[in-house]
Amino acid sequence: MTDRSRLDTPLTSRRRFNFNFDTEAVGQFSESIARFLGTGRYLAWQTILVIVWIVLNLFAVSLRWDPYPFILLNLAFSTQAAYAAPLILLAQNRQENRDRVALDEDRRRALQTKADTEYLARELAALRLAVGEVVTRDYLRRELEELRDMLTQLQSAPPDDAADSTARHEPGERKPKK
After folding, report:
1. Radius of gyration of the chain from Cα atoms?
2. Is residue 38 part of a domain?
3. How far apart are the C-alpha atoms of 173 and 73, rounded to whole Å?
4. Of the four, 77, 135, 154, 174, which is 20 to 30 A from 61 by CA?
5. Are 162 and 154 in contact (CB under 8 A)?
6. Which residues, 6+ apart, have CB-to-CB distance to 45 below 8 Å?
7. What is the pLDDT of residues 31-50, one digit of tens each?
8. pTM of the full predicted structure?
C-alpha cells in the first residue's frame, strides 16, 4: 500500500490552490458595487428589467423561458441578494474603519489643540504679570514728581539743620530715623 491509498495518514506535500489577491483592490471593488446598488439608476434599470421579464413571459408565447410563478426571476433575485448583502456589509466595515481612523485623528488633533490653548493661556498670563511689573509712564511720572517735591523741600529747608545733623554723627554710625 502506498501513502496515497491510506486515509489515516496525511499527505506530506499537499498542494493547495492559494488565492493571492489584493484585499484593498477587492474592498474598493466591493465598495463600488455597493455604491452602484444604492443608486436610483440601478433601481430604475432593475425595475425596467423586471417589467420586461414579466411582460415577455406573460405575453410572448414563443419566448416563455420562465412561466408565471417566475421561478428563474426569483432565483436571479436570490442570487443577487446573496452577493449584494456581503458586499454592502464589506463596504460598511471599510467605511467604519475609515471613520474610526478619522475619529482617532480628530481626537488627537483636539488634544493637541487643547494643549496648545492651555500653553498659550499660561504664556498670556505670564505676559500679563510681566507687563504688570513693567514701569509705566504714569508710575514713572509720579515717582519723578515725588522726587522733585522732596528736592524742593530740601532746598527750601535751612541749610544749617542739614549740616548739623550730618556733623553730629560719626562716619560709620547710623542716622536716627525721624
Report:
1. 48
2. yes
3. 120
4. 77
5. yes
6. none
7. 888 888 888 999 999 999 99
8. 0.49
- Residue-wise pLDDT for 88-113, tens only, equals 898 899 999 999 999 999 999 999 99
Which are the contacts of 2, defined by CB distance < 8 A and separation ≥ 6?
none
Which residue range is the domain that position 121 belongs to? 23-133
Flag whether 13 is in a domain.
no
Residue 56 · residue 48 · CB < 8 Å: no
**Number of independent structural domains in the chain:** 1
How many Å apart are CA 116 and CA 111, to the nearest integer? Answer: 9
Grid cell digits, residue 87: 458586499
Number of Cβ within 10 Å of residue 91's Cβ equals: 21
Cell 525721624 belongs to residue: 178
Question: What is the C-alpha separation between 120 and 127, in angstroms, rounded?
Answer: 10
Q: Can you read off the three cell numbers belonging to residue 147?
A: 522726587
Residue 89 lies in a domain: yes
Q: What percent of the chain has pLDDT over 70?
A: 81
Looking up cell 508710575 gives 139
